[in-house]
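Annex B. Sample input.
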Amino acid sequence: MAAQGFFLATKALGCDNLPLDPREINRAMKYADKTMSEKKIQAWVDRYFPMLYWKEDVSHSMKRAEKLEYAKLPQLYPHEFLYLISNAVSRLDYVLPISNPAE
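Annex B, continued. Sample output.
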C-alpha cells in the first residue's frame, strides 16, 4: 500500500521519484492512509539529508520540469519513502477520537 502511494504521487507529479518537499511527501502518505506533520517531515529530511541517495542533476527525470518548482530539488527514492512512512501514524488514529459521537 505504501509503495502504491509513492508511485501514485510520482505519477501525478510527472516524475520518477518524489521531490524532497514536505507538502508532496505528506500528500503521497495520504495515498497510503498515513500522516505526519510537515515539521516532522522537515526535521527528518534535515537529519537524514546527508544519507539520502539522490543526484544533483534531477531535471532529466522530471517530465514537466519547466512547470514545476521542484525541478532542482533533491528527490526521495522509494526505499527512503518506505523508511519514512514506516514511522508515520495512521490517519484513522487521528480521525476516530475526534469523530466519536459516543463520548
